[in-house]
Amino acid sequence: MVNLTINGKNYEVAEGKTVLDVARExxxxxxxxxxHKDLSPYGxxxxxxxxxxxxxxxxxxxxxxxxxxxxxxxETETSDVTQTRKVMADFILSRCPEVPAVxxxxxxxxxxxxxxASVDPKQDCILCGLCVRACDEVAENHVIGFKxxxxxxxxxxxxxxxxxxxxxxxxxxxxxxxxxITHLGGTEIGKTEKAKDRVWKRVRIVVQYAALVxxxxxxxxxxxxxxxxxxxxxxxxxSRLNPLQAxxxxxxxxxxxxxxxxxxxxxxxxxxxxxxxxxxFCPLGAVLELFGFKGRRIKAQWLRKVKYxxxxxxxxxxxxGSLAFMYFEPITxxxxxxxxxxxxxxxxxxxxxKKDFIWPGFSWWMIGVPFVLVLLLNLVExxxxxRYLCPLGALIGLGSKFSWIKRRVDQMSCxxxxxxxxxxxxxxxxxxxxxxxxxxECIMCMDCAVPCPKLAISFEKGQLxxxxxxxxxxxxxxxxxxxxxxIAIGLLATDVGKVKAAKASxxxxxxxxxxxxxxxxxxxxxxxxxxxxxxQPAITKGGWESLFTPIxxxxxxxxxxDCNLCGQVCPSHAIPPLSLEEKRKAVIGIAKVxxxxxxxxxxxxxxxxxxxxxxxxxxxxxxVFPRVKDNSGCVGCGVxxxxxxxxxxxxxxxxxxxxxxxxxxxxTLYEDED
Length: 674
Hints:
By secondary structure, this protein is an alpha+beta fold. The protein contains 25 helices and 18 strands. It is 36% helix and 11% strand.
């Protein structure tokens, strides 16, 4: 054993150790860039200098290759030591001014700017020799070494050519303190691994935009009069894959909805691969990837908790039988947003000849507002919606905490260069936490692995579970959100009479029952599919709970006799998938003629697919008028309203079946003398 003193404190250590070894074992920090415990000391960086006093002699020595001896006295922070380290740090910073690892250690030693101009500001190799020693001592391949002298000195292979062994070895990469090893010209070290990372990134991009194209194709099928939209065509596939829609619809309806079985696939994929939905399959996420600035991170990162508040609010409201806040759900947002442009154009050609036609599709501009806001927020910060507001992302993120595959950072290899954080589209990589990421925030896009110079980032299986991250919702926050949501629901429902009246004043699509609002997820796919355009989004009608839900508006179109598409596309079965025969008998409302304004053109009678009209003579009015027969079988399809030339004066209207106004005119059945 050897006795020595470091900074006035005595230590007894084994023979053969270096001063740097002893300092590390006793938590005494000595800066260095060229030393590693697995490799022999080299003393290249000269940053580990200390003052050694032994046998009455004092000298500045490198601690990494100075062995301890009996009676040695070491000082690590004298003025001479500090000044000499500062000079050496200045030299290294002048050579590699843009390398974060060099910048950090230089700043620690008091050097903020280099004193000398750099020949190559992009240079990142400090000639520490760690890679050379790793190749010789660890891999035992002996293929890389130093070439040249003074300013021409470089690390390379023989004749600066690629060695095949380097394709599979990569054992030198973790030892490089700056990440320069994968940038060395000619050697192509790490090329194979980097190529794999790039391939995976390209695969992800292809899958992501293939999913977007599929989504748009399915939307096109939905919009174009239901072409191919029979029960066998999955035009509502993305809604059915959505676990948030599935969960809220079932909770709100208090029943199992088998149509949502594909959501189990998303859940299973999440538990294996993490939050891949957001980067690989979400159509809204694909749109948001097209623009915005990666790496931008606003200071208020606590906003990441807001998405959990939105999620818990939606779930609590669903538990109380209301899905009113489902218009915050991403699939419904992009569906409504894209059709904001397409649907009014289609309506225009149908409605342009109507006298009361002023602004086609006004309600469509309203339902597109959330989509526009999401796009604008993307200019503030890339994927702002995904980071801070998306309830589906919050739900999948919670499941991702228990995923089998997660993003890993090899801390022994990572040089804290920050390249991964700059490129992360979610800002999920935390420089303050050793560039790790919360599984609930990481969308497994694999973008970060490509620029990593140390191959330190991997996506691999590991420990299941992972809580207590910075932005995880606490128990107190969850309880507060539940309580606040419950109180809000109570306050919004206080005026029960008016709420019930508002709900009863609107007509719903064929087959919709009392539980319609508890099942409807506000996706508006039924509105898109409707070839007669009679299904419209509710904006001011039906009360606040009806916002963006489908209502039947006969002044916008008609319910086609041979169509049952709305029930076929509805993912939650809020509109049941009726057969054509069942749909034709489903009562939407009942039509009534206003004799005061009717011009007796008989278009309603001639076009009625149910033969519901009779001719009557009205007391006090001249001529013969059409009238809907009592118990005629009228279902409120709206064909009569659609063909009426006097829509501006409400010559005929359709009313909810229990709200048809009483007839104020006396009339007699007209008997044709012929």
